Every structure is written in structure tokens, then in C-alpha cells.
Amino acid sequence: MADEMELDEPVSPQGSTGNNNNILGAPSGAKVAAMQTHTKATAVRSIEGWIIMVTNVHEEADEEAIQDKFGDFGEIKNLHLNLDRRSGYVKGYALIEYSTLEEARAAIDSAHNTKLLDQTIQVDFAFVRPPPGKGGARSGGGGGGGGGGNNRGPNNRARSGRSRSRSPGVAAAKEDDL
Amino acid sequence: MSATNEPFYLRYYSGHSGRFGHEFLEFDFRVLGDGRSATARYANNSNYRNDSLIRKEMCVSSLVIDEIKRIIKSSEIMKEDDAKWPTKNKDGKQELEIRVGNDHISFETAKIGSINDVTDSADPDGLRVFYYLVQDLKALVFSLIALHFKIKPI
């Protein structure tokens, strides 16, 4: 795995080709503002673009309804409108990919808390940077043994009292990967 | 955005050991300290046709976590009990662990081949909740992985 690229952007090996994003350096102030989620986390770019999530999507919405509303902000490169496995209706969320940060930002700013088929939808980035400090060092790092060790801490705590915690396979994977 | 500060942890595991070694799929979500984001991890090990381990880690926004919580809460899985569910067997097992606020569940059961296994079980209503919730969670995780990393998770 591309651990050496994961210092800041765990999943963006395309850093050097980012659309005018100085991804590897410190983003400009405007850039940082454009990348902020509603809860002030910082969005990250995915392999081929920026992914936003839409929630409280009406169960009878279809891809055309999503296209009609979100196509205005840029070309939708990918759309996942998953169905409830039990009812067959829309589960309630959509994931949309745009090529550029500007398009994703426009969709979030324009469509958040607006109506889609009579329901008020929420719109925000799906993927963010790990917070600085412990979180960042942990999941962003991958480079240091400390990262891996840290990784297990909270996990084990969450499973305290159970005889069987991590599966051996996952443990082995960690050793291999980190 | 809803109160994202309540503790939240989700882990799902499905696997078995057999001719191709330990084959499994596992993912988990854990909210990070300030509640603004959560780490999500995904591992899929299939040795079939020399496939190798896929392991991915990503950080998702609070809106994604809110949606996962909504899916969990509306499923009412937290009211279920795995006491009468089929126990793990040579075909493997599934585990589902969820902590939301003060509620915590940790279920273990056999793999479910089809809805018939659910209908024929001693607790069809409870197992059905589990069966569909797991499918809905997997669908979300696979979409996140596919869009973020541009790989087919399975």
C-alpha cells in the first residue's frame, strides 16, 4: 500500500495532479474554507474527484431526481443511490462524485437544507482529513510503528471483556501493511 | 447536524477458515475525539484464485456517521438479542458490534445463506432485522470504498 503518501492525504495518491490544489503543501486560506464541512472538518479529495453525501433523500427519489437537482452544479461523475434491501425503496442517502472542489462546494452550499421531493435534505462532503493530533497521527500516519500501536488501543478498549478480539487475519494484515 | 458527540462504534465481521485459509470481510467505524469525523477501516481477505488481502482506511464526515446511526436506529437492532440465533459453524460466523450512546450490542451468529435461513430460525423476526441491516451497511461501505478508492471491494 502507498503508505509513504499517507502523511496528510491518506487516500489521494494523485496529489501532484490535483486540480490546482496545492495538496502537498499548505492549502491557501480560501482553499481551506472551501474544503470545510458543516462541522468544520476538512474535506479530502478521493481518487477521481470530490464525494458528497446527501441524506434524508425521499424513498421514492430516483437517479433522475438527483440528476435534476445536482447536475446544476457540475457534471455528476458517479452516483450511488442505494436501495433498502428489505423494502426495495431508496435507503435515504445518495453519494455523488464531482470532478472539482468548486462543484462539490457549490452543491453543498446551494442544496444543503433545501427540499427534494418535499423532504429537507442535508448535503456535505463524505470524506475528511483525520483531525490533527492523535487522530491524524493514527490513521493518517501508517508510517510509524506508533501509528499502528495506537490503532489498536481504542479498538481493544471498545471490545474489552471479550475473549476474542481482532481476528488473526486482521492482525497479520496490520503487521504486513504498516 | 445531530449530536455527534455521543460515543459511536460499529464493527462487522464475516469469515471462515477453510481450504483457502482464513477468509473474511471486516469493517468498522469509530468516531474520533471531537465528533467531527470518524475513521472507517475495511479489510477483505479472499484467497480464492490467489486474491490477496485488501485493506483500506478512510476518514468520513459527521454527516456520514449521522446516516449510519440513522440506519442503525431505524432498524431497531439495538432491541434484538442473539440468544436464539444460529450459532457459528464450520461455514463460519458473523459478528456485529455496535455502541451508540449508552447502548451496546455484540452479536455472533452463523453465516446466513439466504432469507430461508432466517425464516427457518428460532427467531426469524430478530434475525431478519440483522440480515437486512447487515446488507444495508455493507452496501454503504462498498459505495464509500468504490467511490473513494475506485476499486471494487468484492
TrEMBL record, chain A:
Q: Name one GO cellular component term.
A: cytoplasm
Q: Where is the RRM domain?
A: 50-128
Taxonomically, the superkingdom here is Eukaryota
Q: Provide an example Pfam family for this protein.
A: RRM_1
Q: Which CDD domains does the entry link to?
A: RRM_RBM8
Alphabetical UniProt keywords: Cytoplasm, Nucleus, RNA-binding
Q: Where is the composition biased (Gly residues)?
A: 134-151
Query: What does the UniProt entry say about where the protein is found?
Result: Cytoplasm; Nucleus
Spell out the protein name for this chain.
RRM domain-containing protein
- Source taxonomy lineage? Eukaryota, Fungi, Dikarya, Ascomycota, Pezizomycotina
From TrEMBL, chain B:
A Pfam family per the record: Mago_nashi
> Which SUPFAM superfamilies does this entry report, sorted A to Z?
Mago nashi protein (SSF89817)
Task: List the Gene3D superfamilies.
Answer: Mago nashi
Its GO CC terms are: exon-exon junction complex
InterPro entries, sorted: Mago_nashi, Mago_nashi_sf
Q: Which domain of life is it from?
A: Eukaryota
**KW Transmembrane (keyword) present:** no
Q: Which UniProt keywords apply?
A: Nucleus
Q: Where in the cell is it found?
A: Nucleus
Q: Which GO terms describe its biological process?
A: RNA splicing
CDD domains per record: Mago_nashi (cd11295)
Asked if the record carries the keyword Heme, the reply is no
Q: Which family does it belong to?
A: Belongs to the mago nashi family.
Q: Which PANTHER family match?
A: MAGO HOMOLOG, EXON JUNCTION COMPLEX SUBUNIT-RELATED, PROTEIN MAGO NASHI HOMOLOG
* Entry protein name: Mago nashi protein
What is the scientific name of the source organism? Answer: Bombardia bombarda
